[in-house]
Amino acid sequence: MAYRFACIMLTVAMCASPALSYSTGAPDGACGDMVPQHHTEPQKSAAPYTIVLSKKEIRANEGVTITVKGNSAKDTIKGLLCQTRVGDTPVGHFDVPPNNNFVQKLDCGNSKASAITHKKITNPPNAISFNWIAPRDLSEQARVYCTIALNGGVFWVKHSSDFLKVN
To answer: 47 and which of 24, 61, 142, 159 could share a cystine (Cβ 3.0–4.6 Å)?
Structure first.
């Protein structure tokens, strides 16, 4: 009887594991398409989040503060993956203060700190802020893209900010 119970519990555990999300941040494998491997489809509705830029125009090698925030108090952020891109190419790097409890840098491909992702968030906030630094040689319009998860099964992929002009 104990053997049968153990087999049942093992089977349940093996079936349940694909439904788990990445509680300590997105894997670098999500960098390209920004789709989390939550084994469920992303939401098709408009995201209940806004990506706010502290400036609309910056110079190369200058920074901007980015805030991802829910449109209402119930729109908290359990998971996050953000990149700043020109077209489909990630550019620049993120600067995260060491005392930030919500996000951490993620190296996508050979690019250091080219994305940010969530840390293990036990009490999801309604807003998260972080800094992005433009590369020295950039002179184009960039856009911030974020995949934002309300929870492991409810998320929006590549929600975008307004354009950011870099001179």
So the answer is: 159
Q: Give which of 53, 29, 35, 50 is closest to 134, Cα–Cα.
A: 53
- Residue range 131-147, pLDDT digits in tens: 999 999 999 999 999 99
23 pLDDT band, cuts 50/70/90, is low
Which is nearest to 161 in space by CA: 148, 147, 149, 143?
143
At residue 128, the 3 state secondary structure works out as strand
Q: Is the dihedral of CA 113, 152, 78, 63 positive or negative?
A: positive
Residue 53 tokens read as 């830029």
Q: What share of the chain is helix, strand, coil (3-state, %, to 5)?
A: 15, 45, 45
The answer to whether 106 and 42 have CB atoms below 8 angstroms apart is no
- Token readout for 144 is 């911030």
Q: Nearest CA to 144 among 65, 48, 47? A: 65
Whether 164 and 57 have beta carbons less than 8 Å apart is answered as yes
